[in-house]
Specification:
alpha/beta; Metallo-beta-lactamase, Chain A; six-stranded mixed β-sheet; globular
């Protein structure tokens, strides 16, 4: 099993490919440039079985429609973020990234478990950065894809429309307390990290969790 990571465009959002067995792959997020990567790996015999979107902000979904059209992979995302796609279309066009009509095949509500590319996937509903933010945990490879909820040394913004700090803190607590410390965190921006490292070294994370405990 391999995780392929690449920066999709100048805004720094990351697109991931998890290469599973039997020539299958899963794509997580699809910012501008994801279509070219999907085409590259498709030409080399990989079937992209699923496109998992961590949330509906434009820098993570600009190429999602094109990837779906190319691969036929079902698009999975949080149902509460589907309304954000209309705004995402306008933003993608404004930045010159283009847009292709996107159909969402599975709008998730609450947690879910399914199989993709021969791997178990736990979809964790983690609202806060956006109402329908999700993380995708792959226990067999010890990896979680957190979108814009948790970063190396930082956490997701809570000053955007639909963001909510209390929900974000609750989601962060669930994420870092619910997964093993050696779990590799692949965020929507920046470098990978681990749950344990963020518990020890992420000052903002620790401050938010501590402040929330004091209020309870």
């Amino acid at each position: 099993m391999r995780v392929i990571r690449f920066v999709s465009h100048s805004l720094g959002s990351i697109v991931y490919l998890v290469l599973g067995g039997a020539g299958e792959a899963v794509m997580i997020d699809a910012g501008a440039g994801a279509f070219l990567r999907a085409a590259y790996y498709s030409d080399r015999g990989y079937e992209i079985s699923h496109l998992l979107l961590t949330h509906g902000h434009f820098d993570h979904v600009c190429d999602a429609g094109r990837v779906r059209s190319l691969t036929g992979a079902p698009v999975v995302m949080g149902a509460d973020d589907i309304p954000l796609l209309e705004l995402a279309e306008g933003m993608c066009r404004a930045y010159g990234f283009g847009w292709s009509r996107l159909e969402v095949d599975a709008g998730l509500r609450g947690d879910a478990e399914f199989e993709a590319a021969g791997l178990r996937v736990f979809a964790m509903h983690l609202p806060g950065h956006s109402p329908g933010s999700y993380a995708y945990y792959f226990p067999e490879i010890g990896a979680v894809f957190t979108g814009d909820t948790l970063f190396r040394g930082a956490v997701g913004r809570w000053d955007l429309p639909g963001s909510n700090l209390d929900e974000l803190v609750s989601s962060l607590r669930r994420l870092v307390e619910g997964l093993p410390e050696d779990t590799v965190v692949y965020p929507g921006h920046g470098e990978p990290t681990t749950i344990g490292r963020e518990l020890r070294e992420n000052r903002l994370l620790r401050s938010l969790l501590r402040h929330n405990e004091e209020l309870e």
